[in-house]
Amino acid sequence: RQGVLQQGSTFDYQGTRLTATVTDYESQGTPTVKSSVGEDGRPRVALSFADYDLRRQGDESPYLEGDVLDLEALASSASLVDPGDFDVVLDLEKGRVPDFAAYARALPDSSQIVLRKGSGTVDAHLELSTAGRAQGPSRFRIVGENLALAYANLELTGHLDLESDFIAVDPQGMRFEVDRIDLKLEGVELLDGDKEVTSDWSGALRFENGEMVLRTPIETSTDLSVELTDARPVLAFFAEAKKAVKRVERVLKLRDLQGKAHLELEQGRMLIDDLNLTSNDLELEGELCLGSQYRSAAIHLLAWRTFGLAPVSYTHLRAHETASFISYAVFCL
Length: 333
Hints:
It is a single chain. By secondary structure, the chain is mainly beta. 8% of the residues lie in helices and 60% in strands. It has three helices and 16 strands. It has helices spanning 232-241, 244-251, 324-332; strands at 10-14, 18-22, 25-37, 43-56, 64-75, 86-97, 113-129, 138-151, 154-170, 175-192, 195-213, 219-230, 255-266, 269-278, 282-291, 295-304. The protein has a 16-stranded antiparallel beta sheet that branches. Helix 1 runs antiparallel to helix 2 (244-251). The longest helix is centred in the last third of the chain and has 10 residues, at 232-241. The chain is globular, with a radius of gyration of 26 Å. The termini are far apart.
């Protein structure tokens, strides 16, 4: 009636193999569509896409493939002329990534990171709104096996597990409330040319209780924690950009690292405060601020066991147990 679907309207469709194209991407699959207009007058559309794959046009390897992808959309209006905006729920179970090398184009050239190979699985439940309204909680998990990437002269292989719980506050603005993001790396082997930097390395990074805006540059305010078998892979990546870092690694034999901090990123500025880092050799706390206009740091060294330094009591200092220049500094205070 006047281009508006009425309550009780239904539409069901069972299709054959279908190809859908959006900008540079295409998806193939077998669709099943069920739609109806409920008592609230809002149309609901349930789309099930079977035996699907998603790829960039012209690419041989798909980004993603799987058995079933389910999508449910709720329109704000029953008008065929102007259906308004949509609230969308997408469920993906055991989606397969045949080759992570297909994602190489997604990395900016400035990163200098090259994805070589690797396969994996994707599970996701996403709740989004085309009107930018906040929806219910979303989650995803990506598991990668035998990943291989290169950075300058470094070659890294290993296993990846990335999992997140979040709310899409403003999908169009790419703004998210993050409950947690967990990144785990295991069985990592790192080569610097023909030289082995480390093998069977593992690390874990968690972001929690914060906000992220995923645009260029990324903006975030979040708590983070980290656990690393040792610091060699991290220092090796930095050393490719600044060779002086290699001299630092010879002095800092950091193993079994555990750290916590609060991270803030915004255009031209990175702040790490409430920093607390411990390892087998080093204990420190403080804050660090880096930016295009200024840099500052206040780092308090609590212990450095390589040089026999340990926490000092300001009320009971025994000079024979403390390095002389630390004793002098404390008495000056």
